[in-house]
Amino acid sequence: MKFAELTSAQLAALDREQTLVVVPIAAVEQHGPHMPTGTDHFLCTAVAEALEQRRRDSVLLTPTVWLGASAHHLRLGSTLSTALDTYVATLCDIGTSLLDDNYRRLLFLNGHGGNIDPMRVALRELQLPYPDSLLAAGCYWSVADDFIRQTLAGDHKFVGHACEFETSMMLHVRPELVARDQLEDAGPLITDNLHGMFVSRDMRQRTRAGYTGRPDLASPEKGRVLFEGIIQRLEALVDQILREPLGTEHAEFLNPE
Predict the structure, then answer these.
(1) For the CA atoms of 107, 109, 112, 114, what is the dihedral angle to 10 degrees?
(2) What is the structure's pLDDT at 257?
(3) If you count Cβ atoms within 10 Å of the first and of the last residue's Cβ in the chain, which end, N or C, has fewer?
(4) pLDDT at 151 over 70
């Protein structure tokens, strides 16, 4: 079910208790010399739409929020970004619109690393006035960390930026947008972690050319395998969220009816 394609009467008739509203959130920003600026938007949207196709009776998909928190890319140019407090407020406004319409289960499905911190803050703010709702958020790839590590060939066994993972996914989803003649090893990635402490460095400080890892090892087949594996795991997540009890007290989660 797609929110934007339904009438208000059709939406009003949905079972609020057993409908999971999925809100894809992404970004438009530089992705090195080989990937389009809309990479996060294209991938997150493709994953969300595939999930909705598999779970049409229970997933209500909103349009993708394409603008993200991308300030750490601004010095490289070709980036659209919003202030952190604006972004948190935007996610809260979207969530409030849905929760005030009595939807009880909400998932922000994220496709951009810079959105992680503000989306968590937004959920903390939303949970206070709506404690009897299930509010979840996470990156679409987070459900498949072990699978992704097993599938990637390079030393960077994680989702970076315009990396082996994202490039493979784009070669599967939108291959015509990938500049294959520009696929090269990104070189060293400067750390943002010192003895367990986060160090705030932007992409101009951390990378040679605005991307990470080994996009030169990407392939359409690898992208197909990754895409399908992620969708299967997201289906299991949807089923689990719909089974989770709704409540405000500890005992309600220990002994659901």
Answers:
(1) 0
(2) 53
(3) C
(4) yes
